[in-house]
Amino acid sequence: MAKASWTSIGVVIALGLSLIHPMGAVAKTAAAPAFDDELEHGYVEVPIESIQQFVQIYGLVKDNYVAERSDEALFQQAIKGLISGLDRYSRYLSPQEYKQLVQYTEGDLASVDFSLEFDSRLQQWLIRGLKPDSDSSKLGLKNGISVFKVDDQELRKLNHVQVNELLSGAIGSTISLQLKANSTPINLVRTKKVETDIQAQLLNNQVLVLKVRVFQQDTANEIQQLIEEHQSSRLKAVLIDLRNNPGGLLSAAVESA
Questions:
Q1: Where are the domains of the chain?
Q2: For residues 225 and 247, what is the distance between their CA atoms, to the nearest angstrom?
Q3: Per the confidence metrics, is the pTM higher than 0.70?
Q4: 8 Å CB contact between 84 and 92
């Protein structure tokens, strides 16, 4: 099958974009005056020069990269770059990743089969608690090996809570570890189920301590239920323990407060 020229592909992309409603972008040209009225009602204008530049770069990558990449993979990567380039908190989610996010918020939280501890002498994060027969050990990881990055985040300036947050995610989701600055990343799958139930402990001074491991969809309701269950003990105070809590749903944290 003959390949279409990059010029013709550019025309197709430009025409395709012109049909996308607010979630997309429109390339406005003199050849398409019929869209002028629609552009004033929620469409986003993109300079045609930017579209042409993208198509040109896309063609160079498609034709000259050392390994063959599908069009779908290249477009997905382009979308991810567009979103992640905004700031460190913005991220594009594929349908599979979104499904995993929903699982995470509903309680299906998992981590890797080891922990990371900071060595103050070496000023590095080291792998600890890795068992010899674990999945990660089969990939060549060992206790005492330093980790430079997790999912493109450099660990050196992060605290324990932030590092623990990077290790946690939905069951079955993928995490990328980079051991050194220029080393090839190692991909792992989060399979170790993390206990997310709130632990309640009533102290002798009638203070109820609630250990909240992560903020999820029903966290506020669980806290309320535990407080009501201990009301007969004439509670004087409730202490929420958030140590090593990686975060979670902002709305759940606000509701819990």
A1: 6-88, 102-193, 199-256
A2: 21
A3: no
A4: yes
